[in-house]
## 1
Amino acid sequence: SLGMRSRAITFARHFEVCGPTSASRFGRKTRLTMSFFAENFWGEKNNGFDVVYHNMKHGQISVKEMVDYLRESASVQELYSKSWNKLAKQAANSSQQGTFSPVWQIIRLMNEKMAGVYTELVHRLQEVVKELQKYGEEQRNKHKAVKEEVQPTADVVQSFQSTTAAIVKAKENYNTRCLEYERLKREGASPKEVEKAEAKFTKAKEDYTQLVDKYENTRVDFSKKMTDTSNQFQEIEEIHLSYMFDIIAKYAQCFHHAHFTIMQIEEEFKRHSEDLGIQKLIQNFAESKGTGTEKPAAVEFEECDLSSLPPAIAMDTVENNGKETPVMEKAVDKLTKKKESFLKSKKKKDKKKKKKDQIDNVSTGS
C-alpha cells in the first residue's frame, strides 16, 4: 500500500541521514557520555556482573532471532515473486482475440517485471542474512575473548561476595562473644569462666578485624574492576546495537529500493495503457482483422442480352392487326409487357411505402 511504502522510504532515509555512525564491528568507538552500566549494577547482593555478562551473551540470541526473521521475510517475498509469475502466465494464456487482446501483453509484461522486483528483493534480503550470520560468528569469538578478559572481575566478584557473607557472620560472632564476656565480668563469674570467655572474645575480635581489612582491600579491587568491566560491557553493547541498527537500516533499504522500482513499473504500465487507448485498440483491430474497404455497389435492372441466341428459323402466324409476327418478335413483345407490369407494380409499392413513411413521420412529430 502507499502508506506502507511511504513509511519504508521514510525509515530508510532516516537511517541514511541519522543512522548510527559506521564502525568496525568490534573496534573501538566513541563512548556514550553516560556510563549507565558502571552506575546501575551494584546493589546489596553484588549481582550486577552476572546481569551485564548475560546481557552480552543475549546479544547472540538477538542475532539468531534476527537471522530467522530475515529468512522468513525473504520466504514471504519469494511467494510474492511466484504469485506474480503465475499471474504473468495467466495473462499470457488469455484470449488473443478481440479488441482487448493487446492489453494482455502489457499486463503480462508488468507482471513479469513485478516478479523480477520481488526476486531481486529476496536476493537482497539473503545478502543481509549472510552479512548478519558473519557478524554472529565474529560476535561469538569476541564473547569468548571477553570472557577470558573479565575473568579477574568474575573472580573478585565471587571473592567479595564470600567476604561480605563472612564479615556478617564474624560481626555477629564478635558481638555475641563481646556481650558474653562483659556479662560474665559484671555478674562476678569465676576467673576461669571469665578467662575462657575473654579468649573467645579476643579470637572473635581478631577474626572480625582481619575480615574488615580483607573486605576493604577486596572492596577497592572489586569497585575498580567492576567499574572497568561495566564500561567494557556497555561499549560492547553499544557496538552491538549500532550494528543491529545498521542491519535494520539495510532491511528497510531493501524495501525502499523494491518500492521505488514498483512505482516505476506502475508508471510504465499506466503510460503503456494510455498509449494504447480505446481509439488505437479499435483502429488496430480494424486494420489487422478487416475484410476490405470497398462497399457493395447499387444494382439496377438490366435487359436480358439475347445477342448470343441464333436467329429464329420457324415462323408462327399470330394475329397482330392482320400481320404475321415472327416467333422472336412475339417473345420480345411478351418480355416487354412483363417489364412494364413489373415497373408499374414497383412504382405502386414505392408510392404506398412513401405514403406510410409520411404518416409515421407525422405521428412521430406529434
## 2
Amino acid sequence: GTYLDRHLVFPLLEFLQEKELYKADDILQGKLALLYPTNMVDFAMDIYKKLHNTDEVPEEMVSRRQAAVQRLESLTEETAPIREVLDDAALVQRLRDEKCFTMSHLTEQRGVPAGALGSLYEWARFQYECGNYEGAAECLHHFRLLTTNPEQAFLAQWGKFGAEVLNRRWDVALEDMNKLKETIESRVGSTPPLMVLQQRSWLMHWALYVFFNHPEGRAAMVDLCFQDRYLNALQTNCPHLLRYLVVAVTLSKRKQAVLRELTRLIAQEDTNFTDPTTRFLKALVEDTDFDGALRELADCEAVMASDYFLVQLKDEFMHSAKLLVFESYCRIHRRIDIESVARMLSMSVEDAERWVVNLVRDAHLDARIDSQANHVVIAPVVPSVYQKVIEKTKGLQFRSLVLSNAIEQRAAEAAAKAAASALQPAAAAAEGAK
C-alpha cells in the first residue's frame, strides 16, 4: 500500500475478507485503521461496533463526526454560488465554447466570489474523503479547467484519476491515466528526479486497477512498463509489479516482441522478487525447462486466485500460458506424441487431442495430426527473406526521425549561440558610446 491512496486499498481489503484469507477481526481492524483519517465516520463507527461487539463508540469518534458535519455545512455554504453555475451543464458548455469559462468571467459576470475556487477544491477533497467519488470527480474536473495554478491542477489530476478508478469508469480512468502520465513527463525539468521516480511508481500502482479491468488494459500496461523511464522505476522501486507484467505480456498479442526482454528483466531482479509467475516464464524462455515451467504454472493458479487484480483473468492466463508452452515446445520438436502432451498438460488423451486441434487452428500453426501414430507433426518454419528485411528495418524510420530531430536541435542551438556571439560586440560598442 506504499504507492496507493488509502481509498484504493479498501477494495483490496474487501476482496481479502470475501476470500477469507485472513482472520475476520484482522481485516476489520485494517479497515478501521484505513477509514480513521477519512470523513467516512459513520462507516468507521459501524466497523468499530462489529469489531468490538458493542453498541457504544468512543467519544472521539462522535466528536469527529460532529466536526465533519460542521465542515460540510461550512463548505456547502461557501461553494453554493460556484456550484450553482457548475450544475448548469448547458451554461458551462456554452461558456467553454465561447472561451469564457474562467474565474475572472464567473466573478465579473456571474457574481461568483473570487475565493470560491479554493473552496471548491476543498469541497471536492471533502467529498472524496466522504466516499462520494462521483461528486469529487465532477468537481475536480471543473476545478482543473478553472484554476491557473499548475501545482493545484496537478494534485486535482491525481484526485480525479483516483475517483474515476473508484467509480469503476474504466474508459474515463484510462484517459485520465494517459493524461496524468503526460503531465508527469512534462514536469521533469521542474521536479526533483527522486520525486519524478516516485510519481512514476505511484502511477504504475494506481493504474493496475485500469490495466486489469479495461479491455485494452493489458496492452496499455505492456506499452507503459517497457518505456525506459518506467522500466527504471519498476526496477528501482517496485520489482513486485513483475507478477502483473508477466500476466499482461502472456495475455498480450505482441508477447513475442517483449518476451526476451521481460525474461532478462526477471533474471536481473531474481534476488529482489520472485514468485510462480516469474519462475514460470524464466523456466520456459531462459531455461527451456518445460517440466519446471508446468510445475510453476500449477502454482500460478493458486497465486492468481488470491490476487485482487488477477483473479478474474486466471482461466484466460492459464490457457494462454499453456499455449505459450506448446508453441515453445513446437519450436524445438518436429513430431510430438499427443500422449506426452496429455501428461504435460494434465489432460486425458482425448481432451489433449481436441486441445491440440483447436490450438493448431487458432494459432495458425503449420501442423497436422497423424491419427495412426497419434502424433502432431510440425512443419519446419523457414522465415522468408522479406520477413527478415522487415524485422531488420522496422525501427529504421523511427531512428531516422530521432536522428533528424537531434540534428535540427543541434543546428538551432548553434544558430542561437552564433546570434548571441554576434550581439556581444554590438552591445559592448553601445555601452562604450554611452
## 3
Amino acid sequence: METQRFWSPTREILVLYFSNLEKFLFSEAIAVVKSLTDASPDDAVWALLPSLQLLAAAEALYYNLYFLRMQEGAKVSQLYDIVTGMLNKVTNDLEAQLKSFPSSKSPNVARRDSRTPEDAQTHLSLAFYSQLVKQLLLLVVMRKRHIVVYQSLSNITLLKDFDSDAAKLKSTYLSAPDTITHPFLIQIRQNLLYEVLLLEKTILCESALSQCDAQNSVFYFEQVQADLHAMDAKFRFSQAHQESEDETAASATAKFASLPLANLFFRLRDVFREKLLLYFGSDSDARIMSALVNFNPRETWYHTRVARFVSETSCLHVIVLLDPTKTSIKKQGSGLSAYPSLFSYPSIIPPREHWPNLISLIQDHDDVLSRDDFQYPVHYFDTKVTTSYFLRRMQQGVILVAIFPDQRDPLEEGVVQFFAEISSFLRLQTAFSATSVTK
C-alpha cells in the first residue's frame, strides 16, 4: 500500500523543526526547513517553508531581545509582519484547496465514502496544516503584543500604567490553552505560558515596589522567584528526558539559560531583591524579614554605589524618602513623620534637622520632581545653614536626596551622574541595558 501523504517524511521533518524551535535551537530549525528540498511542490506543506524559515529567524531575534535595541527594534516587528502576511497567504490557499474537496454535507455527495481514499487523506492533510498555520498566526500576534510590553517595561516613567501592560498579557494566558492546540505547537505554547506568567508577575512586583507597597512587593517577588524556579525545573526535566533518548542531544537547559531573555528575568529578580532591601530593609514585618533573611544590604549594588559617591564627593548624607502623597498605601503619621526615611547613609539614623527643608522642597517643586523629561535633580542652597540639597523623584513614591555641608554647583557632574545611575537602576533600565544581545 502506498505511504499516505499525511504521514509523509515531510511531516516528520516538520516535527523536528518545531522540536528545535521549542528548544530555542533556531539555527537548527532553519537548517531543517532548508533541507526540505525534496518536498513536492504540490505537497500541502510546500507553501509553508518560506514562512517557517522566517518565523525561526524572528523567534531567534525575539529571544535575543533585539527588539530592545534602538535600531533593530522596529525590524523585529516588521519581520513578524512579513511572517504574518506569508502565513495569511498560505491560510487562504489551504482554505481554497479545502473548499475544492467535496464534503459529506455537499448536496452533490450522497455519502462520505464517495470520496476516494486519496482524496480523503489529502483533505485530512490540508485540514491539519490549515489548523497549524492559523495557530501560528495567533502565536505571532501574541509575540508582537509581548514585544510592546517588554519595550514599555524597559522605559518606566513616573506615571507608568502597569495595569495596561498586565492586561495585555492576561489575554494570552487566558486564550492560549484553548486556541493553540495543534500537536506541533503544544510545547511552544507551554514555553509561551511560562514566559507570560513570569512577565506578568514581574510587572505586578514592579508596580507594587513603585508604590512602596511592602506586602504586595514581597508577595509578587516570591511569585517571581517561584516562576523562575518552575521554568528552570521545566527545562531541566525536558533536557533529562531528551538525553535519555539521545546522548548527543544539545542541552536545551543550557541554551535557554544563555539566552538574553532568560538572563533578563534573572537580572530583574536580582534588582527586585535589592529594591526590597532598600525600601523595606528596616521593616519589622515577619514576612518581609523572612524574604530578606539571607541577604546583606551592604553587599548590594546600590549600597556600594552610595558609599563610593559619599566618599568621592564629601556628601554629608544620602537619603531615600517615602512620599506618601504619591502612593496608594495608607498614610502613616502626620507632619514631618509622614515622610519616613527608607534608607540613610552613612548613618542609619537620618538627620531629622533637615526634614523641614526637605519636605518644603518636595512640596514646592512637586511639578518639576514629577516630570519625566526633567533629567537633573532639583537643587537648593540654604544660606542660613550653608547646606546644599539635591532631590529627584526615582519612582512614584520614592525620592532620592543628597545633602552637602557647603555650596555646590547645581549641575555638578558627579552628582548628576549619581542620580542618573540610581534612577536607571530603580526603574529597571540598568537591568535591560546590561542584558547582552547575542547573534
## 4
Amino acid sequence: MTPLINALQGGINSLPPIWLMRQAGRYLPEYQTIRKKVPTFMELCFHEDYATEVTLQPLKRFDFDAAILFSDILVIPHVLGQMVHMLEKKGPILEPIQDPGFF
C-alpha cells in the first residue's frame, strides 16, 4: 500500500505523503521537451498523451507519493466558449463575453 493510500484510509505513516503541484514541474527539461511539441499551452492541456506525460514526470524523477493531474483553470472558460489566448511572457488573455446571456 502506498503512503498516500494508507494516509487516506486513516493509517499512520513514518513520514507524511508528499506530492508535487504541476506548476512546480514546469522547470523540468522533460516538461520543456513536451511543451515544444504543441504550438499553444491550451493544446497541451487538451492533448491526452502529453497531459498524462507531464502529470507523471515529477513521479518519474522524484520519490513522490502522488501527482496532481495536469490542467489549467483556463480550461473552464475555454470549454464554455470564451476565447482564451496565452501570450508569451504576458500571460492569459480572455476575450470579452459579447453575449450577456452567455452564462
